[in-house]
Amino acid sequence: MRESIKESKRIVIKVGTSTIMYPNGAINLQQMEKLSFVLSDLKNQGKEIILVSSGAIGVGLARMNLTERPVTIPEQQAIASIGQTELMSLYSKFFYHYGHQVGQVLLTKDVTDYPVSRENTVNTFEQLLLKQVVPIVNENDTVSVEELDHLTRFGDNDTLSAIVLELTDADLLVMLSDIDGFYDKNPMKYADARRFDTISEINEDILALAQDSSTKFGTGGMITKLNAAQIVMEAKKQMVLASGYDLSILFNILAGEHVGTLFTTQTH
Ligand code: ADP
Q: Is residue 225 part of a domain?
């Protein structure tokens, strides 16, 4: 199963805010540059790369010298708007340094509800990849709302990254987290927790092991990662959940090494 990862041609990589920001709220430039370097090298190896990056609000707060996330939705959306621009500016600079061009794709949940918008999104991804560009995806926070009759929010980038895998027909989703895999209980709380090397089915028993999630940045914890894994496995594709602490881990994953947890329905 790990062998087949080596053959992955089109890969979606998702990074969370904790991977590219310091705990003190400042931008981790070292990590952003390292991510751009590793992904550029993978492109040079002939892979097609799509990056789903969180961090717009975090970067916006840093840019505006704010330490607290504002409480109102319009204020949060304004901060996200500032942060998204800064985030793309940094990625653009770093990728350009390593010889690659990026393109921004901002999505809302309803792109998958309407065939025409879905087709436009798919076409945009295909054109970018055809032109050897690295699409960088995030939720469109400015227009994303959650109303009873009009649901446009994904709510978390874990689900968004699984939808991006579907839309682009990618082979593999690598989800980089603050944790180095999926365990039989929350490893942040239990020292004897054991990491799964492979998960071949998401069922009630597996979901129960993720109930104990703490969510620093207000995202979904382990549950949304398992939901994403389910979407990926239903699409007959593979997902690896691994630590984003040392980003060169991406080379190890794509070399078929046993790092993180592999979610797959494949048996060979
Ligand atoms: P990120 O911010 O990297 O996207 P989160 O912090 O939202 O990730 O979710 C990962 C957290 O989920 C871990 O740090 C851990 O505390 C928690 N968690 C709960 N149950 C489990 C489990 N069974 N295996 C691994 N992590 C778990």
A: yes
Question: What is the CATH number for 188?
Answer: 3.40.1160.10
Give the structural domain span for 247.
2-263
Cβ–ligand 1 distance for 243 under 6 Å, the answer no
* Residue to substitute in 156, 159, 179, 239 for testing ligand 1 pocket (most ligand atoms within 8 angstroms of CB): 179
Q: Give domain status of residue 223, yes or no.
A: yes
Is the C-beta atom of 260 inside 6 A of ligand 1? no
Ligand 1, atom 27: nearest CA belongs to which residue? 186
Taking only the tens of pLDDT, the chain with its 268 residues reads: 788 999 999 999 999 999 999 999 999 999 999 999 999 999 999 999 999 999 999 999 999 999 998 988 889 889 999 999 999 999 999 999 999 999 999 999 888 889 999 999 999 999 999 999 999 999 987 777 665 566 677 778 999 999 999 999 999 999 999 999 999 998 988 999 999 999 999 999 999 998 765 554 444 589 999 999 999 999 999 999 999 999 999 999 999 999 999 999 987 6
Would residue 188 count as lying in a domain? Answer: yes
The domain tally of the chain equals: 1
Q: What is the pTM of this model?
A: 0.94
Asked whether residue 268 is assigned to any structural domain, the reply reads: no
HEC string for the chain: CHHHHCCCCEEEEEECHHHHECCCCCECHHHHHHHHHHHHHHHHCCCEEEEEECCHHHHHHHHCCCCCCCCCHHHHHHHHHHHHHHHHHHHHHHHHHCCCCEEEEEECHHHHCCHHHHHHHHHHHHHHHHCCCEEEEEECCCCCCEECCEECCCCCHHHHHHHHHHHHCCCEEEEEECCCCCECCCCCCCCCCCECCEECCCCHHHHHCCCCCCCCCCCCHHHHHHHHHHHHHHCCCEEEEEECCCCCHHHHHHCCCCCCEEECCCCC
